[in-house]
Amino acid sequence: MEKTMEVHVPLLNSQTFTIRDTQVADLSALVALEQRCFATDRLSKRSFSYWIKAKHRVFMVVQQDDQIIGYGLVIMRKGTRLARLYSIAIDKNIEGKGIGRQLMLALETQTVAAGKLFLRLEVEKTNKRAIGLYESMGYKIFGDYAHYYENNGDAFRMQKPIRQAAKHNQLPSYPWYAQTTDFTCGPAALMMAMASLSEQTVMEQPLEFDLWREATTIFMMAGHGGCHPLGLALAAEKRGFKVKVYINQPLPLFTSGVRQPVKKHTVEVIEQQFESRAQQQNIPVLYADFDLNALKDALESGSKVLSLISTYQMDGYKVPHWVAITAIDEECLYLHDPSVPEQHAAGFDCQHIPVALDDFIKLSSYGKTKLCTALVISKANFKE
């Protein structure tokens, strides 16, 4: 994916270190370096082999003569402007010579070339040397992760806007919840929004399932399996929140993939029931586009926003998926994704994910009909 890069770094003692892209031939040396550098949380030979061949990563090594004395691995999240420093190691006998800084700069350069704006990392709270290096390079602590390491150590979460044009804004405090099934992204996103508005909302599986039962249109394995915007709106209104719904097309929304006429009719009836109940509860339903200006106005007013996106830009699958939008600035919006995408990702990789504004326009359009729908949620006594 990335362009080939090689950097020659001269040191005061006239030794020269080369920073270059990883090659398949480096595998054994990487495993040996990992054994020398870490007692726990080691990457396995299988992991190294996977990442050497993988796409959507930046993987560089530090070489002195014929020996690999350091490496850095950055992994990308498709469809977003976010990258994560997954692992970095420098041989202990060359620590303090500036190689770590040079390696980080090379990784950042390659990550920017791959189109990413932000680089995140985690570092053990007791690792003062590494924390000092990252802070000196512009990384800022934005959270922590308890018991992150195998030794039960805690980690700081740090982030840097690695492209000069990107601005680091303080991201808001916003609770995050991981959906516990493949089909409860809507309830998980709704719980995050409700919990950010009210401390009385307890984000746990029983509520997740209750919300799904109230909001889904699925019928005997027909339908898309997830939750309807009007169903989620009714579930939020039932719990004392004020909701406004944006849908850019008339109902029905989720029947194109239902082939059997009886099942299709049933799903259509469920959607009609949602629409009728929304009218009875005086829930505003605007059959119009929810554009970036409306999104910005909603967030600035203190409301919370849920948006239905297509996961195609992220994972190649055209699946409707609910997320909570947490913030917006001049270049990006930020979202909480209730789904942890892969085994190599951590929960905080799914929090405040930066998405370029232009990219979000594509992301928030689902299916052949280009469905765009969003919920604006606020406290019941909130005045617009």
Please outline the major beta sheet: 8 strands, mixed
Spatial gap, N to C terminus: 47 Å
The global form is elongated
Succession of helices and strands? EEHHEEEHEHEEHHHEHEHEHEEEHE
What structural category do the secondary elements indicate? alpha+beta
Mean pLDDT score, rounded? 85
| Beta fraction | 25-35%
Q: Helix segment count?
A: 11
Radius of gyration: 23 Å
CATH class of the largest domain: Alpha Beta
Instruction: State the total count of DSSP E strands.
Output: 15
CATH H-level homologous superfamily name of the largest domain: Cysteine proteinases
Low-confidence stretches: 10-14, 165-169, 219-224
Assembly state? single chain
Structurally, how many domains make up the residues? 2
Pfam families: Acetyltransf_1, DUF3335
Protein name: Acetyltransferase, GNAT family
InterPro entries: Acyl_CoA_acyltransferase (IPR016181), DUF3335 (IPR021770), GNAT_dom (IPR000182), MshD_Acetyltransferase (IPR050276)
Domain N-acetyltransferase: 17-163
Account of the protein in words:
- GO terms for molecular function: acyltransferase activity, transferring groups other than amino-acyl groups.
- This is Acetyltransferase, GNAT family.
- InterPro entries: Acyl_CoA_acyltransferase, DUF3335, GNAT_dom, MshD_Acetyltransferase.
- With 384 residues, the chain is an alpha+beta fold.
- Helix content is 31%, strand content 26%.
- The protein has an eight-stranded mixed sheet, with helices on both faces.
- Helix 3 links the parallel strand 5 (82-90) and strand 6.
